[in-house]
Amino acid sequence: MSSSPIKFGTDGWRAVIAEDFTFDNVRICAQAVANFLADVKMADKGLVIGYDTRYASERFAVAAAEIIAGNNIKAYLCRRTSPTPVISYGILVKQAAGAIIITASHNPAEWNGFKYKPEYAGSASPEVISQIESHIPGIIDSGDVRSIALKEGLKKGLIKYIDPFPAYYEQIRKLVDIDAIRSAGLNVAVDSMYGAGAGIFKKILAGGSTKVTEINRNRNPLFPGIQPEPIAVNLKKLSRMMGRGYDVGLATDGDADRIGIVGEQGEFITQLVTYALLTLYMLEVLQQRGAIVKTITTTDMVYQLGQIYDVPVLETSVGFKYVGPLMIKENALIGGEESGGYGFRGHIPERDGILAGLYFLDLMIKLKMKPSQLVAHLYNKVGPHYYHRIDLDFPAKDRGAIVSRVKNSNPEQIDGTPVVRVDTLDGYRFRLADTSWLLIRFSGTEPILRIYAETSSPERVQRLLAEGKKLTGV
Question: Looking at domain 386-472, which of 3.30.460.40, 3.30.360.10, 3.40.50.300, 3.30.310.50 is its CATH number?
Answer without folding.
Answer: 3.30.310.50
